[in-house]
Design goal:
Elements (H helix, E strand, L loop, with lengths): L1 H7 L2 E3 L5 E3 L2 H10 L4 H14 L6 H15 L1 H7 L1 H6 L6 H13 L3 E9 L4 E10 L2 E8 L7 E2 L2 H17 L9 E8 L2 E2 L1 H10 L2 E3 L9 H8 L12 H9 L5 H6 L11 H14 L1
Parallel strand pairs: 5-7, 6-8, 7-9
Antiparallel strand pairs: 1-2, 3-4, 4-5
Helix pairs in contact: 2-3, 3-4, 4-5, 5-13, 8-9
């Protein structure tokens, strides 16, 4: 009990530089979301609780938990490293746009990535255009490779004006008669409170790593199993980069079209291990 009380008073440092009290339940929940068994969760939580110290960063806590999980259950470790895997999609942000395209496809939308669209005043490069029936969304993806990065209010202000320019053009076009239009801003990091307030007030849809609460990007990826190829242990960094350059961004694409692996000339052992990992994750 003394140890638990002490841990409840330990302050840890988030990637943003903010400090918060360590909550072992939050750690346990993140492992549950990754599919870890309760026995393994308790073992990792006990290890972290006996090791943790005041001022330690959340990145160090994550790294230690990940190391233990990897020894016990590799597929759980793959899912647990999701946030880091998203950060490894870069540096261009283009694979992230394809990942978001897959999210919209699962919602039933036909998707176009990286499309130039003429607005009323100027043309715009739109990261993702998602269309379902007569509903069309223009999606801007803000990709960050640093977990402490935030998207401030300037971004939704800018995107609102771009969306409005496109809508002003299309609402007067016979080709889009009866269409309903909208805009999204999606990030793998976080929005500032001003960005959220403006987005909600102006009618923009916002999606970040953990916003809306319980329905953020991490929740969607876990629920729909849209895991990026960067979570995989059984492919090298160069092999994963090669796949992303060919627009193979999520693990499901490998399962559906295994011939994308042919040029890697994997041994039978390597291929078997990779397919087992994919089956466990998905």
């Amino acid at each position: 009990m003394k140890k638990e009380k002490k841990n409840n008073q330990i302050t840890i440092k988030k990637a943003s530089g903010e400090e918060e009290l360590f909550k072992v339940e939050k750690l346990k929940e993140s492992m549950r979301n990754a599919g870890a068994e309760e026995k393994v969760i308790e073992q990792v939580a006990d290890d972290i609780s006996s090791w943790i110290y005041d001022g330690v960063s959340t990145q160090k806590i994550y790294a230690r938990a990940f190391s233990i999980l990897r020894k016990k259950k590799k597929f759980v470790a793959s899912r647990y490293k999701l946030k880091k895997a998203i950060m490894e999609l870069g540096p261009t942000g283009y694979p992230f746009e394809h990942l978001i395209g897959k999210v919209m496809e699962l919602k039933g939308y036909a998707v176009e990535v990286g499309k130039i669209i003429q607005g009323q005043c100027v043309s715009h490069e739109v990261d993702v255009v998602a269309t379902k029936g007569k509903k069309q969304y223009f999606v801007e993806c803000k990709y960050g490779q640093s977990p402490g990065k935030t998207v401030n209010v300037q971004v939704p202000l800018y995107i609102r004006s771009r969306v409005d320019d496109i809508v002003n053009k299309r609402k007067n076009s016979d080709d889009f008669e009866g269409y309903e239009f909208g805009g999204w801003v999606v990030t793998n990091t976080r929005f500032t409170s001003d960005a959220i307030d403006y987005g909600n007030c102006s009618g923009l849809n916002l999606l970040s790593w953990d916003y809306p609460s319980g329905k953020g990007l991490k929740d969607i990826i876990d629920q729909e199993k849209i895991y990026p190829v960067t979570v995989l242990h059984n492919l090298t960094k160069n092999q994963k980069q090669n796949l992303m350059e060919r627009d193979i961004v999520i693990c499901q694409q490998i399962m559906e079209k295994q011939e994308v692996l042919d040029e890697f000339q994997l041994s039978k052992n390597q291929l078997r291990n990779l397919m087992e990992e994919l089956e466990d994750i998905l």
